[in-house]
Each structure stands twice: as structure tokens, then as C-alpha cells.
Amino acid sequence: MAAKFNGNDYPTICTEGDAYIDTQFLRLTNSSLDNDMNGSVGRATYSRPFLLRENSTGKLADFTTSFNFAIHSNNKSSYGDGLAFFIAPNGSFIGTKLAAGTTLGLPYNFASPKDTAFVAVEFDIYANPMVDPPYEHVGIDVNSLSSSITRPWKGGIKEGKRNNATISYNSTSKNLSVAFTTFVSNTSDTQVMKHFYYIIDLKQYLPDWVVVGFSASTGNYTSLNKIISWNFNSTSLGDHDSKVGIATDNQTPSAMASTNSNSKSRNKSIGLAVGLAIGGCAVMFGGLGLIRLVMWKKRETTVESSDEDPIVHELIDDEFEKGAGPRKFSYSELAQATSNFKEGEKLGEGGFGGVYKGFIPDLKSYVAVKKISRGSKQGLKEYASEVKIISRLRHRNHVQLIGWRQERKFLLVYEFMPNGSLDSHLFKEQSLLTWDARYKIAQGLASGLLSLHEEWEQCVLHRDIKSSNVMLDSNFNAKLGDFGKRPSIQQAIQVLNFEIPLPILPSKMPVATYFAPPKSLSISTDTGGSHGCQTESSNYGHNTNSSEFTTSSPAANSHPSI
Which residues belong to the annotated binding site? Predict the structure, then answer.
């Protein structure tokens, strides 16, 4: 994933030890082209320090970093030792002592361990039962080479398969969250996402100014360690920069600056800028691109003019303009954010369309873009219904709507939930939820429902409470999503009595939900004040989810949704 930058603030990467940047990757240890891969140690950091804590207020920054990487043993069955993402004091040193590989290049002070200061997330591929589990794992290290918490990991090391990781820190909850890909087995090409977290107050372990980056090492057993792309974002403290990163995937830097202190250190910094050598080609292809852009714009205008629904558009515009929250995006913005709705960015498929992960540069954050299918009027009405509800809702336990787009394509832009949906953790073995986490999720869901039923100006019935509609942020806070109104029992009765026509259903129906057994066939309206609002169905759904929290088994449903 290419990192997004502002203005002319090109990032620079400083490398130490055996780390270097070639035409495609950031390599942390010697490659197979080097004479000796044994005992290789290297690290790479962003060239400018990062303000982690504001001294005057003691406030810590929040941050999120995502990177794509690969560790390759060249088909050898024995290999070592791994790589790590780390945060260390500004001016810290590369860990070169014990070249047998145990340090992963981290700045551990063997002479005075109490003076060691770093926090790292390690991807350890060498079994060392003296300090860590005897298998490949991901772990969080705090001032120690022995991890505070670990999770098993299958990284496809023999074949050098690509992996992804996202690390987030919430300064309020002191939650350090790690999400990483792992293969189902050593022989499988199927990857799944795993998650875990660790509560830590970083200001107790790190100074105000720190450096961020990667380190790696090899010992008697070796491997190739490379970073393919990297993105780092943080909240701003004062007037300091809040975004750094590199993008090396299929990009060739054309401007390079290096400073060598000695032959072993090989400190280098590289600026990602556009070289003058490609200027002539850019002019030629730019002209062709301009012609193509004009033709595409003309076609886009034709498509939009013939594919709009003025009634739905007017309804949606009216709803959004009543509030100052969500913003209107252009289609090109969202297409660029999601790599043109690339399948690889797809988070899932709902009843009315796909959901894609994207990155909005000016917001400096990831988003989830819901692409609404335009196959039927029912789909547009569902879209308008969802807009009408969520554009007015603001609660910490509701998935927040960031923006929308309605010309050409119907799109809704939500805040991104790094830990996915609750059902993926309960039923799909994505990660093991602790009892504390389950209790926290149940509390959050109850709080979100209470706000819908009693704390808003009108009572809102969600009517689709199920674990797949409960989303989890980076700190495993529960957020209720998918407010699209579903057909009610009253609508079904009207259809059976031939009072209204049969509704046009979407091509892909949502999965069954948990409705309460009807108390009678006389159903009151869904909205219209708390006095007339029948909340039993939503409460029933919440209670059903609570049983799933306890058992990690899907609840039996004798009353599926209509």
C-alpha cells in the first residue's frame, strides 16, 4: 500500500548496520547476493524523531502503523531470526551484541539492562525456549528480549510469502493492539487475520522524543528480511508532524542521499522524490492521459445523467444537510482511496453490496466504504433509510458515518473498524476473546441500544441485532452498525392481505437474525416517540448475543427474519 504524504514533505529513511534500500524494498539484513548472511544485523528508522508525549501536559499521542513485509529462508527448513517494529528513545543504538541473532537488532543494553528502553512488536521465527515460546510467534516486547505476550504465527517463511500487520496505540485506554496475517497451515496459501492486545502506559517506558522503525537480525541460521511498504500515522501534539511512511512496492527512488560513518554502519537516508530523468516521458504520457481523462469525464457525465433517482437524491441531500457531520466525497476520491474498489481491499459482502477498506489522505485515517448495489429500488430505499437514521446519530457505541457519495454510485463512508465484526472472533477462530473483553463488548452493545431506545429524540429500532453487525475498533470497543431498515412483520401481514405489493428483495438476502417471538400480530410503528416504541425485538437480539458471548456458539433461531 502506497503511503500518502502532504505537500513536499518527502519522508527519509535512515539505515544502520546491514540495512539498505534497493530498487524495490527496504532490506534489513544482508541479502543472498552478499558474501555472508550469518550474524547480520540491521535497522531502519524514520529520519526525524517522533513526539510521543508532550512534556507540558503529559499527553501521549495515538498512533497506527501498517506495513507489508516478507521473511524468506530460500526454501530452507531451518532459519532465523526475525524482524521487529520498534519505538525507542531518540539517539538509541542498534543492538549488534550477540550476533547469534537473539537481539533482532533491538537496542537491549546487556551491560545495564535497567537502562534499556524500547517497546517492540516482534515477528520471531527462531525457536528459543529460554526466553520465548518454542515456535514462530508474534510478540510484544517491553524493555526485554522476552515477550510480555505472544501469539503463534505461520508466516510462510520457506516460500517468502507476504504478510501484513497493523499496530495501533490508544493513549486513553493504554491499549496496544496488534493485527497480523497468518497462514492456516505451513502448506496452505489461505491467510487469516489474528488480533491481540496489551495494556501498557508508554510514558512509563519511553521518553518524550522517540524514533520509530524496523530492525532484524540473523545468527547461525539465516533469512532475508524485507519491508515492502510502510505507513505510520499519529495524532499531532502541538505543531509537530503526524504522518510518516515509505512506499517501496514497485517504486524506484530516483534521488538518494547517504551518510557513511563507517563501513559497517552504512547509515543512509533516501528521499522519495521524482527524478528529472523521467520528466520527458511524463510530459508525453501526461498528454495522452489528459485526452483519456476528458473522454472518461464525458462518459461519466453521461452515465450519471442517465442513472440518477432525483427523489432518492433529494431525500439524501436533505438528510445530510440537516447536520454538520458527514461530508460529501467525490467518486474519484473514494475510488483512489480503495484502489478502485480492488478485490484485495474488500472487507466483506453485505445484503446490499460490498464493503471496502480505504485511506483518506486529508483525514489521515482508514475508512470502510460501503458500495450500495443499484439493482433495485428497494436497495436505494434501504440506502436512504440508513442515511436518514445514521446521519443524525452520534454515540461512542455506534459506527460513525463519515461521508457519502450518491452520483454515479451509491456509497457510504464509515469509520474503519480494525478488529472486524464480533462473529469473526466468536465463531471463526479469528482470535480468542478474554472474559474481560467479552464483558466490555456486552456493556458497549447495551449502551448503544439504550441510546437508540431511550436517549435519542425518537426511539429507533435496529431490528437486526446479531454478532455480525457488532463491530470492534482497535481497542475492542463494541460499535453497532448496519442501520438499514429491514422488512417488518407488519409489512409481511400487509403483503399477505394483498394490501401492499410484494417488495422487490435484494439479490443476496442478509443472513437470518434473531427476532423475538411476536407477542401478537398487532405491531406498533417502529419510530414515533418512546411511548409507542416496542423495543422487545432489539432487546431479544441483545440477549441472544449475550448468550453467544458466553458459549462462543451461534444461537438457535426458531423465528428467522422475514
Answer: 371
* CB-based burial label for 90 (10 Å; 0-12, 13-18, 19+): middle
Residue in 464, 473, 482, 526 annotated catalytic: 464
Active-site residue flag, 307: no
Q: Are 259 and 267 in contact (CB under 8 A)?
A: yes
Are the C-beta atoms of residues 110 and 102 closer than 8 Å to each other? no
Report which listed range, 301-310, 392-401, 527-536, is most confident.
392-401
Q: Which amino acid is at 168?
A: S
Query: Out of 129-143, 231-245, 263-277, 297-311, which region has the weakest mean confidence (pLDDT)?
Result: 263-277
SS3 letters across 79-100 = CCCEEEEEEEECCCCCCCCCCC
Q: Can you read off the three cell numbers belonging to residue 111?
A: 551491560
| Closest CA relative to residue 539, chosen from 416, 411, 453, 412 | 453
C-alpha cell at 150: 505472544
CATH architecture of 422-551: Orthogonal Bundle (1.10)
CA-closest candidate to residue 125, choices 154, 145, 95, 164? 154
What mean pLDDT do residues 402-414 have? 79
258 to each of 250, 262, 441, how far by Cα in Å? 21, 12, 50
Options 3.30.200.20, 3.40.50.410, 3.60.20.10, 3.40.718.10; CATH for 307-415 is: 3.30.200.20
Q: Report helix angle 377-390 to 310-321, nearest 10.
A: 10
Classify strands 353-360 and 327-328 as parallel, antiparallel or unpaired. unpaired
pLDDT in tens, 197-253: 999 999 999 999 999 999 998 888 888 899 988 888 888 776 444 444 444 443 333
Measured CA to CA, the distance from residue 24 to residue 269 in angstroms comes to: 15
Those residues with Cβ within 8 angstroms of residue 132's Cβ, 6 or more apart along the chain or in another chain: 124, 139, 146, 147, 150
* pLDDT given at position 461: 64
For the chain, state the CA radius of gyration: 26
The DSSP call for residue 25 is: -
For the stretch 141-176, pLDDT in tens is 998 888 999 999 999 998 999 999 999 999 988 999
Instruction: Indicate the annotated binding residues for ATP.
Output: 371
The dihedral formed by the CA atoms of 537, 541, 544 and 546, expressed in degrees to the nearest 10:
-130
Question: What is the grid cell recorded at 322?
Answer: 440537516
Q: Is the pTM of this model over 0.70?
A: no
Instruction: Give the start-to-end residue ranges of the domains of the chain.
Output: 12-51+64-164+204-274, 307-415, 422-551
Chain-centroid distance of CA 359 in Å reads 10
Angle at 70 between CA 247 and CA 31, to 5 degrees: 95
Helices (H), 74-163: none
Q: Count Cα neighbours of 351 within 13 Å in the Cβ-side half-sphere.
A: 20
- Architecture field, domain 12-51+64-164+204-274: Sandwich (2.60)
